[in-house]
Design goal:
Elements lengths: L2 H29 L2 E4 L2 E5 L3 H8 L3 H35 L5 H9 L6 H11 L6 H8 L13 H16 L1 H12 L3 H9 L4 H12 L1 H16 L3 H7 L12 H11 L5 H35 L1
Antiparallel strand pairs: 1-2
Length: 299
C-alpha cells in the first residue's frame, strides 16, 4: 500500500480531529487574548485576561485552591491506583485460568460514565440512608459512620478513592500486558542464582515494567488535571462542601457559565489555556524523565 493510499484512510479521522479538537483549542486560545462584552469580541487585550486570573477575586483564592486539589487528586490516585493495580496485575498474572474473567470484572467500572458513578456513590455514602454507614453501624464502627461527602476533611479523599475504584482496571490491564512481555527465563535465572521471589520482582521484573508505569503515570496526570465529571457529581459546580472538592475544571465551568461576568469568555478561555499549558508541560516533562530512565535501564 502506497503512502498516498494510507493517507486516504486516515483522512476522515484527521478531519474529525481537526474540526472537533484542534479548531476548538485554537479558538479558545485566541479568545484568551481579547476583550469580551458578552459574546461580542472587543479589542486585543494581550495578557490582561491572564493577569486577571492572578490578581482579581475570586481567582486569587479559588485558582490556587483548585490547583492544589488537582495535585492532591493526582498524588492520591497515583499512590493507590498504581500500587494496587500493579499488585492485582501481578497476582492475576499467576492465575492463568481465571485471569481474563477477573481482568474483565476489574475493568467494568470504568466502562460506566463517571457522572453515573459519582451519583451512585453519593447515594451509597448518604449519612441518612446510605448502606455504607448502616453497615459500619451494624458491625460496631459507629465512629466511622461519617458524613463522608459533607465534611471538608474527607470529601476530597472520597473523590480520590472512588476514582481509584472506578479506574483500577486500567492499570491492571496495562500492567498485565506488560507482565506478559517479561521473559520467564530472566526470573527463573534470578531464582537459580538464589534470589527470592521478592528480590526477583524488584531486581528483574519491576525495571522491565518502567515503560508501562510511565504510561500509566502520564495518563493519570492528564486525567487528574482535567477531572470534571466525578467531582461535579459529588460537589456540584462550586466544589461543595466549602470548596473542598473544587477543581480547576469546575472553576472554568463557573467562570464560563455561572459567573455572569461581562468578560466571562475571555477569563474562562485564559483559564482553559493555562490548564492546557500545565497539562502539556507536565506530560512532556514526565515523558522526558521516564524516557531517560528507560534508556539508562536498557543501556
Amino acid at each position: 500500500m502506497t503512502r498516498r493510499t494510507g493517507l486516504l484512510f486516515v483522512l476522515p479521522a484527521l478531519l474529525l480531529f481537526g474540526i472537533f479538537v484542534l479548531y476548538p483549542m485554537g479558538t479558545a486560545f485566541s479568545y484568551a487574548f481579547f476583550e469580551w462584552r458578552g459574546t461580542a469580541r472587543g479589542a486585543f487585550a494581550g495578557l490582561d485576561n491572564f493577569h486577571t486570573l492572578f490578581t482579581r477575586a475570586p481567582f486569587t483564592t479559588d485558582l490556587p485552591r483548585a490547583l492544589l486539589h488537582n495535585i492532591l487528586f493526582f498524588v492520591g490516585t497515583m499512590a493507590f491506583q498504581n500500587t494496587i493495580g500493579l499488585g492485582v496485575a501481578f497476582l492475576l498474572h499467576r492465575r492463568a485460568r481465571t485471569r481474563r474473567l477477573l481482568q474483565t470484572l476489574y475493568a467494568m467500572p470504568y466502562l460506566v460514565s463517571p457522572i453515573v458513578i459519582g451519583y451512585l456513590w453519593t447515594l451509597l455514602l448518604s449519612p441518612t440512608f446510605g448502606p455504607v454507614n448502616q453497615l459500619l453501624t451494624k458491625v460496631g464502627l459507629d465512629s466511622w459512620a461519617l458524613p463522608w461527602l459533607g465534611d471538608p476533611k474527607t470529601a476530597l479523599w472520597v473523590v480520590v478513592l472512588v476514582s481509584v475504584w472506578q479506574w483500577i482496571g486500567f492499570p491492571v490491564l496495562l500492567y498485565g500486558a506488560a507482565l506478559g512481555g517479561v521473559p520467564e527465563e530472566l526470573t527463573e535465572a534470578a531464582r537459580v542464582d538464589g534470589a527470592s521471589n521478592r528480590q526477583a520482582f524488584q531486581k528483574v521484573t519491576l525495571p522491565l515494567l518502567v515503560p508501562a508505569i510511565g504510561t500509566v503515570s502520564v495518563l493519570t496526570f492528564i486525567f487528574a488535571m482535567e477531572a470534571f465529571a466525578l467531582p461535579y457529581a459529588f460537589g456540584g459546580s462550586t466544589g461543595n462542601p466549602a470548596g473542598s472538592t473544587d477543581f480547576v475544571s469546575l472553576l472554568f465551568y463557573r467562570t464560563a457559565f455561572d459567573s455572569g461576568s461581562v468578560d466571562a469568555i475571555g477569563s474562562s478561555s485564559a483559564l482553559a489555556t493555562l490548564l492546557f499549558i500545565v497539562i502539556f508541560g507536565g506530560a512532556v516533562a514526565a515523558t522526558s524523565v521516564l524516557r531517560r530512565h528507560e534508556r539508562r535501564i536498557t543501556a
